[in-house]
Design goal:
Elements lengths: L3 E6 L2 E7 H6 L4 H8 L47 E5 L2 E4 L6 H11 L1
The chain binds iron/sulfur cluster (SF4).
Length: about 110
């Protein structure tokens, strides 16, 4: 039982916030992928699997460590590590795609 959660990938927190925020409107593609891989009781659907393999922690990919597996990858992702973007008082994510003005505006509209 918890109120807050943090999602880690390759040894870094990539998203953190309230359980409600992360379950209802996850910002990071890895958070969304994890939520999509939760088994549903009684379902015969195959579980979602993130393509590719976890990275070698001694030889991480350049830029965002998730970029070789990310469905939302952009050219910038392979070059620069994403900065932390704040989506609410206690909600942050490290993702260039989530940090776009459109994504932030959607958050602002939803929380207004
Ligand atoms: S920064 Fe880019 S590669 Fe990393 S999670 Fe966001 S969209 Fe995907």
């Amino acid at each position: 039982m918890c109120d807050r959660m943090a999602v880690m990938y390759a040894g870094k927190i990539v998203e953190q916030g309230s359980v409600r925020n992360l379950f209802d409107a996850p910002k990071h593609p890895y958070t969304r992928a994890l939520l999509g891989s939760i088994a549903k009781l009684g379902s015969k659907e195959p579980l979602f699997a993130i393509p590719g393999q976890p990275p070698d922690l001694a030889n991480l990919p350049s830029g965002c460590a998730f970029h070789p597996r990310c469905p939302d990858v952009m050219p910038r992702c392979a070059k620069e590590q994403p900065e932390e973007t704040r989506f609410g008082p206690d909600w942050t994510a490290r993702c260039w795609r989530a940090a776009t003005p459109a994504a932030k505006e959607a958050y602002d509209r939803a929380s207004a």
